[in-house]
Amino acid sequence: MALSSTSRVLIALLAAVAVAASASVAAATKKSKTAQRTPAAAVAKKSPATKKNAAVSKKAVAPKKAAAGKRGKQVAVRKRPFVAPPPIVIPVADSRAVAHDAAGIARDFDRWLDGVEASNGVAGLSAAIVKDDKVLLERGIGFADVTTREPVSGDTVFRLASLSKAFAATLAGLLVERNQLHWDTRVADVLPAFTLNDVQGAQKLTVRDILSHRVGLPHNTYDNLLEQDEPYQLLVERLGEVPLTCPVGDCYGYQNIAFSLIGDVTYASTGDFYYHQVEKRIFHPLGMRTATYGREALEGSKSWARPHHRVGADSWSPFAPKENYYHVAPAAGVNASIRDMEQWLIAQMGGRPDVLSPQLLATLHTPLVETEREKRASPWRRGRLFDAQYALGWRIYDYAGTTLVFHAGAVQGYRAIIAFLPKYRFGAVMMWNCESAVPMGLMPMLIDRYLGLPEVNWAGIDHGDSPDLAGGSD
């Protein structure tokens, strides 16, 4: 039977509806299967709301691409997968690789100093390397005073800044040996007026705590006011206003003002001024003939390094030393020449048992508190330190599996660094009269060379003997 035109239209419409329904069911089935094997985050990513937000974001970030989309072009946005940086692999020193020719290492270091001098990297610098009780290298480069062209010599006196802290701890140890003081002497027992924000905690604070920076105060408390020439005694009194970051004795917080309480404790225990005791028990016995305390003594030295600041790209200009950190003598008050520091280094490495006993040195160099931030403080530390702690006036590093006793110091216009390997009785000290970072990187280069570790140009110096060194700086 022939179908009318109306019937044919109805059949066509029903067929179209059937096809559409079939396609809808197929799409739903496919979506369901896809959801079963696709993470929820990916499904969420396909939601209309997410697409809308992505479109808005895309439009805001890349208007040109959004405009292209309006013209019918689709721009794919591909997210780069997160790639974690490779972990730093710290090498481990092998005792079989340690240098047998320490004098040769000193000659290498001497050539590095040639590079620093040639590049005008410092105004003036004095350095020494010691093995056992022998000075392998003593070198001065540059000028004590650029204006007068006075060269740096072995007797040129520099400020030691925080290298002074080891002298304070060593004096305390000598007084302990004489039974004039004890490591567990409570500060409040000899300084009754002293207090902290935690009054009960202040009663527990010991000599050992202040010399290892375990007072509980925030790092460098009131150093900013000291630099504004606020009197030391006033700042000590104001320590009681500062909330503690941890209970006394529980954590590390580097201090200059609180550390210098050891000077007041020394006077209360001996009846003598702190610097007199250091001169009597350390400087004179060790033959540190040009070592002194204070600005007046510095400027009264026969040869002393003026502080300098950079002028232009390759010039230096001297300026007058500032007084403020001399007000905290135990923390930052020592002046010394490289010849003084050679004797100090020999003694700290066990070469003067008549002055510093092995038992005292063991106590001074025993770590007491973790200093976690120190491991990340510079590229060479990140590349070499497994651990960093503070002892009594000294930092103690696990340097590629070997103990390194270390300290650095800085005040305006002066820098200093000292480090030694007790196991090998090998160490070095440097002092310079400007704020260049270059010499700081020379120390780990020297230690690396001695231990036979992979060589890295931590100082970023230009020298010809190791062209394969990787660049770096402190």
TrEMBL record:
Domain of life: Bacteria
Upper lineage: Bacteria, Pseudomonadati, Pseudomonadota, Gammaproteobacteria, Lysobacterales
Region feature Disordered, mapped onto this chain: 30-73
Annotated EC: 3.-.-.-
Alphabetic keyword roster: Hydrolase, Signal
Protein name: Serine hydrolase domain-containing protein
Source organism: Dokdonella ginsengisoli
GO molecular function annotations of the record: hydrolase activity
SUPFAM superfamilies with a match to the protein in the record: beta-lactamase/transpeptidase-like
